[in-house]
Amino acid sequence: MRAAGSISLAGGLLGLLLSAQMVTTHAYACESDADCRYRGCTDVSCACGSVSHDRCVDGFWTYSTCNNGVWDAKCFAGQCAPGVDPANSLSVVQTHTPVDACPDPPPPGVQLQVCGGCSFWLEEDGNRLSSTGECATTCTYLYLSHRGIEAVAQGTFSGMTGLRSLSLRGN
User: Fold this and answer.
1) Claim: this prediction has a pTM higher than 0.85
2) Which of 55, 93, 111, 162 has most Cβ atoms within 10 angstroms of its Cβ?
């Protein structure tokens, strides 16, 4: 009887998650709202334009999590998400915007190049090259010549099995 109850509860929770549309492919992990305060998470617009909806007033949604034209970024169920309504324990942004979770924060610095699904960055402290994203087989030719790179962060090229040519000349 206990196993059947667990299965029923699990099915109910799965249904609740699917109906709330909080299933995401990837989101930045967090422990508190402070972990979610970064570019890419705190700047998701909550403009509604001219949508005919009782919660759309003067071009913006009237939810408590829409402030100064952007959704509040909150730590919800261990993941950073914009527009989480604490009273309802779900993301209202899901209904009104295509964003349901915050991506990983970008490293501080200058984006040098995008290749496949990866971005390559020159970090501000020490002119060190780093990368974000997934591009195991999609980045094949990467030219980062004469960019002021003085060091390469550990793991920058890890798993990039599709990389055929890399140029770091003049750094």
Assistant:
1) no
2) 93
